[in-house]
Amino acid sequence: MDIQCLSYAREYVGSQPRLAWLCAEEAPERVDSSVVPELFTRTLRLKVRPEAYGWLNRAAIEVNQVFNWANATGMDAADRHRRADARWLTGFDLDKLSAGASTYFECIGADTIQRVNHEYAQKRKQFRKYKLRWRVSFGARRSLGWVPVVRRESLRR
Q1: What are phi and psi of 138, to 5 degrees?
Q2: What is the pLDDT of residue 97?
Q3: Domain span at 130
């Protein structure tokens, strides 16, 4: 092997990647080495201590309140009979409208509220519905509680 040939490029033979050494004159300007996507969702199954049950239940109730608020606001904005400029709100539109709401909640912060807004907008677009079902926090037919955890928040606690 020549000392000048220190760069390599990734070639695909079939579906398997293979590293091919190139001389400095033949080397490409940029080698794409990204194999893992930048954004992905991971579901964790963890055992929760009994001391955290109360906090998780309160956080799930607050998440349901934010989801129901986003549902009501989205229905109001998309109602053609009440508004001349009816439109479907995106997650970013809901983020602008919910700015400052984290001061009214004990357990969830602004990052969790934003994640709920984006989740609502994604589900509404996915199912093409005017309104989604309300999330019920109490009673026999209550919704399964969920709290979106952002990486920064999980490192803090």
Answers
A1: -130, 165
A2: 94
A3: 50-156
